[in-house]
Specification:
Layout: H1 5-8, E1 15-16, E2 19-20, H2 29-42, H3 46-60, E3 66-68, H4 70-76, E4 80-85, H5 95-108, E5 113-118, H6 122-134, E6 137-143, H7 144-149, H8 151-159, E7 163-167, H9 174-187, E8 192-194, H10 205-228, E9 234-238, H11 243-249, E10 258-266, H12 277-280, E11 282-286, E12 289-293, H13 318-325, E13 329-335, H14 336-350, H15 356-371, E14 376-381, H16 389-395
Parallel strand pairs: 4-14, 5-6, 5-8, 6-7, 9-10, 9-14, 10-13
Antiparallel strand pairs: 1-2, 3-4, 11-12
The protein binds pyridoxal-5'-phosphate.
Length: 401
């Protein structure tokens, strides 16, 4: 029998077509091979799957519901918008889905510690939560600039028992935090698992994180069929690294549904003004994998801008590059202004404050619903916006009724 898409992608070397792979220093080859072998084993293990299912149900609060956004749909005057409510997942976003699974994998491998980088601190908080749950040590590397900007998340990580390591070289943001975390991991790969925060990085992470997030798509497919008796015409998700998008897409990949990944076009089309890697980037290797990325003249990762710090990444998971190249996904965009407008609209009309990342997916869905009156649209509502209210209200006035 022919293999399904998910069984055949990626290949054994971690390639999705020409994208992906593992471009790592020799000293990391052995630890990454071990992780790959362990994942291969546990992904088929009844005990692992059963334990993960139990935690998802009794600790995370899954399944998360789907809500029909009636008022928002009426406002758009056309298509019907449904929201898969990852904001109701414990810690308020989809990230805990893969962090819990990575921590369980670390336990299985006999590791004592989780290590990772964080930009805005969202991945750090989710990982610190998973580490606390499993009684693992947790070390989060974070640029000094980000520590200042995202201080509430630094406090959350510390309250949860994680050690936050300030990174004081270079631009002191995410890119240097990745280098710092990798360095610390190389020193102690024996006792540590490197816990990447999206469908990025060297093989097997893009595959592993996709599989861990797939629960979103599996639940959503069942729920929407039960609610409406049919499949959505379109599935929409925002794309930073691409984990929440791959999570929901993978549940519908063999169905005749259009899959839209929404990238942030920030405040303009010039390099440095946006983080729309698939829209404006080209093929290149960074952080250990080949994908489509935004590069400066020397071929280094470009600086990027987006009002949502979780979408602020100059590349994208290799599977997104592949799916775009073969024409299976549609790359959409939303800029800062549209995201802010959607942030206030969905809050006011539905009583749900979205994360600014999620607001990009909502903004695009609103455009889609206006243009396609018959369309049924399912949006992955990746997270709640409590973390963003200070920034938004300080910079953009609350609209009058
Ligand atoms: C981190 C984050 C994202 C972006 O990450 P992906 O890997 O692209 O999903 C999107 N939404 C929320 C709420 C996030 O915290």
């Amino acid at each position: 029998m022919e293999k399904s898409y998910l069984e055949s992608m990626p290949d054994e070397k971690g390639f999705f077509g020409t994208y992906g792979g593992a471009f790592i220093p020799p000293e990391l080859e052995k630890p990454f091979a071990d992780i790959n072998a362990a994942y291969d084993e546990i992904s088929k293990s009844f005990d692992f799957i059963h334990e993960l299912a139990k935690i998802r149900k009794y600790y995370q609060g899954r399944p998360t519901p789907i809500s029909y956004a009636k008022n928002l749909s009426n406002f758009c005057g056309g298509g019907q918008i449904y929201l898969k409510r990852e904001d109701l997942n414990h810690t308020g976003a989809h990230k805990l889905n893969h962090c819990i699974a990575e921590a369980l994998l670390a336990k299985h491998l006999g590791k004592k510690k989780l290590i990772a980088e964080t930009g805005a601190g969202q991945h750090g908080v989710a990982l610190a939560t998973a580490a606390a749950y499993f009684g693992l040590e947790c070390e989060i590397h974070m640029g000094e600039v980000d520590i200042k900007k995202e201080y509430p998340n630094v406090l959350r990580m510390k309250i949860l028992g994680a050690k936050v390591v300030p990174v004081s070289f270079g631009e002191r943001t995410l890119k240097e935090a990745v280098d710092s975390a990798f360095g610390a991991y190389i020193e102690d790969s024996e006792n540590t698992l490197f816990a990447i925060g999206s469908v990025v990085g060297p093989h097997p992470y893009p595959k592993m994180i996709r599989d861990f997030q797939r629960v979103v798509g599996i639940e959503a497919r069942e729920q929407i069929l039960e609610m409406t008796g049919k499949l959505p015409d379109s599935i929409v998700a925002c794309v930073g690294g691409g984990s929440n998008a791959m999570g929901i897409f993978s549940g519908f990949i063999d169905d005749p549904c259009k899959l839209h990944g929404v990238e942030p076009t920030g405040k303009g089309t010039k390099l440095g003004e946006h983080a729309a890697s698939l829209t404006y980037g080209k093929e290149g290797i960074m952080h250990g994998f080949n994908s489509i990325m935004l590069q400066d003249e020397e071929g280094n990762p470009a600086s990027v801008h987006c009002v949502a710090s979780g979408l602020d990444y100059p590349s994208v998971g290799p599977e997104h590059a592949h799916l775009k190249t073969i024409g299976r996904t549609i790359v959409g965009t939303a800029n800062d202004e549209e995201a802010i407008d959607a942030f206030y609209k969905v809050s006011r009309l539905e009583g749900i404050i979205p994360a600014l990342e999620t607001a990009h997916a909502i903004a695009y869905s609103m455009k889609l619903a206006k243009e396609n009156p018959k369309e049924m649209i399912l949006v992955n509502f990746s997270g709640r916006g409590d973390k963003d209210i200070d920034f938004v209200t300080e910079n953009y006035e609350i609209p009058k009724i």
